[in-house]
User: Fold these one by one.
Assistant:
Number 1:
Amino acid sequence: MNGLIMAGQLLLGLSLLVILHELGHFLAARAFGIKVEKFYLFFDAWGFKLFSFKKGDVEYGVGWLPLGGYVKIAGMIDESMDTEQMALPAQPWEFRSKPAWQRLIVMLGGIIVNVIVGIFIFWMLTFKYGQTYTVNEKLTDGISVGNIGKEIGLQNGDRILAINGSKLIKFEDAISSKVLFDGAQLTVLRDNKTLYVTVPDTILNKISKNDKENFITPRYKMGSISTVLAPDEKADRQSFLDKIFGRKFEKPVYPAYAAGIKPGDSILAVNGKPITFFDQFKEEVAQNKNKQIAISALRKGKPITFNVKVSKEGTVGVAQNFSNMPETAHVDFNFAESLPIGAGMAWSTFVDNAKGIGKMVTGKLSARNISSPIGIAKVYGSTFDWVKFWTLTGLISMALAFMNLLPIPGLDGGHVVFLLIEMVQRKPVSEKVLEKAQIVGFVILICLMVFAFGNDILKSFGK
């Protein structure tokens, strides 16, 4: 069921964005009197389709291959590779008969719509929900530092005062792209001394394999236990993939549950060592993988000790009750104020995509970070949340705008490059060159898609 919810959200989000992207091309073409022959969600590869209908001169339909969509524009060399039509004399309603500037607008139509959609989504989210952030100066206990944070020199209890010399107001900015992408310098207060810690611009290679909790989080005092992982019959069943690939199924181990720890217990010490902060508790447990530990706690005011066998991963399966959450601030914006903020969020997403690709090209970011629809579906999650759904859909809209702008033949950006060449040399690029480029681009895109799917499949097996 969880898989169906993830797939459903992905399908809904991508379908909306693909339809709107192709609508951008469609409306631009019609505005210049160019004939559009097909408008499809998904691809009707080899002529197979789920359904279609014709209205006017346009065939509308849904293909069976959910890897995007397309509009077939008359007189244009595109994914349909309709060479027969291109061999006939050019007609006034065809793409190739129109001035280069009009064809350029048609090619940019989908990208422009994706940008508008992304801005609109973030605009409406900002207007509806405002912004809530953790007040950095209220983090009197500083930060909790994971393994990745420790590697660059941060320590538990550090207080981050500034990023690149600018005062840190919102803690969330310390784990944003301005820090993780750009090799920022953090101004840190430690034991009343000011230090400077530089975040390497390759840090995303490590964070992408872990949660951001392995970098830094606000530091929480140890409170009562809110959750104890218990056996779940559905979760304990051997998965279909385990059976197919012959993997040995190991039932999950829940050490805290087996030892008798219950929600509401307040942990005081591990192996006699007093615990003040939750990160101290996690570290003490992690240092005792596959070992027995003694956890001292209070239950309804009475002391009690549990003998717990720590898992091989270094966990016992509990989550604390964050009753002493850091102070947050909330800001609401009116309709007009929300627009520049939403546009800024959309633009930041576009720039982050560009930076990410740039880092992959220069080798500073592993290509293993490329995700297929499988990875995107996991981000949507197995529960439906409208805020999360629209936030992710806005992010993907801006990512689609950027990806389509890449100068790869077959993508909008490839067509734009050839049109710009035509405008400079004042004559069109030969159709033979365009046909060969389209084939090359198609092969590149297929290879990228196979690589992305392979990435996510290997990640699902922990590789």
Number 2:
Amino acid sequence: MDDLAQDTFLRALGSLHRFEGRSSARSWLLAIARRAVIDSYRRASVRPRLCDVPDWQLAVENAQPRGLPGFDDGVALLDLLAALPEERREAFVLTQVLGLPYEEAAEVSDCPVGTVRSRVARARATLLEAVRQAA
């Protein structure tokens, strides 16, 4: 609070030569004080907030979402998908990764729905076998 009062008076002294007297000095000072408070809030909003937690790194780690696949999982998935034949990979990605219904995946792939179902089932079996071998 004292800092804001000091900032207000420093601003007023710095711009005293521009005061033309069209309003009261009180109104002029209140306008300067209002701008000082607003600027103070703006500065505070962009600065990092202090934390009273003794181990800030642990607090940051605990704030991270859990159970989501990480970068390594994504790379492993891409490697596994790359090992599939192209038509099985397409059917698997369309239905299992992108979530398209089998009918829409069949339209995109330009093949019957039964073929998409078969390709997805074979892709799952191939992926499961690859994961078992890697473990």
Number 3:
Amino acid sequence: MSETVPRPTLEAVAARAGVSRATVSRVVNGGDGVREALVERVRRAVEELGYVPNQAARSLVTRRHDAVAVVIAEPETRVFADPFFARQLRGISKELTAHDNQLVLLLTEGRADHARVGRYLAGGHVDGALVFSLHLDDPLPGLIQRAGVPTVFGGRPGWSDGTSGVVYVDSDNRGGAREAVRHLLGLGRTRIAHITGPLDQTSAADRLDGFRDVMADADPHLVAEGDFTPAGGERAMRELLGRRPCLDAVFAGNDLMAAGALRVLREHGRRVPDDVAVAGFDDMLPVAEQTDPPLTTVRQDIEEAGRLMARLLLRGLDGSTAAETPSAAPSGVVLPTTLIRRASA
């Protein structure tokens, strides 16, 4: 059995660099007041010895853990089945990694998990939190507020009136929906249906509002609620065809529901786009380009939204103590959307 090689110590780095232990501590923990020439000597010694700072000791000095909680208010089965979450997590992870921060993923299967997440955040394990996919009756915002953890939300918070200092990143859901419905109208379609997402989420409610902005006098029976899943899209499409078989276009609240709607239309012998034009929302390429026919949809930059959430949080943390809200960040950032035209409409 090979012998364990002892880890290099702070004293060993100090001896190699020819400086005091206190100087090494200030350099590795990001402190000020050390001449650049000494900083370079310490960094060279750290690299040569392979020294890794003790995170617990470093946290005592910096009051930072270099860790951020990502809280997704959805069950595990939904998170890992929906490519939306993978894209958003990729953007968040890239930004945190670039700043040498760890990502701690927290999911909520039920109400008991909300309390667990609240206790974890209040326990001082992370510097801040990124939270998305909230529902209107979700207790998480209150738990997070009581925990005193700096937070950036993904999506416009439904409980915020815009004056409470809540920091969030969202896409132009309402404007994107308007553009998609106007496009369907421009194709000469007059009986346009809408499959909504769960209406206790602001993104779904905003897309429904965008639909109604254009179709103010639309038949209420041409609106059916889905749940942002393919199965939900299938159920809503069957409901719509049962109510209004003469419909000639469908705007689905996301690409997954549009894919489900396309399957049902095919089962019922409806040709797309000849008989029924279909548009979605998100432009998730694994979905939108592989449907039959390829899907016309509204593109939102999901990965960039994730990166921006992390960037706003880290910027706020760099300018405040761990107990403060990221005051330097704007209260809300809304990213633009773009209509991507393919063969379905």
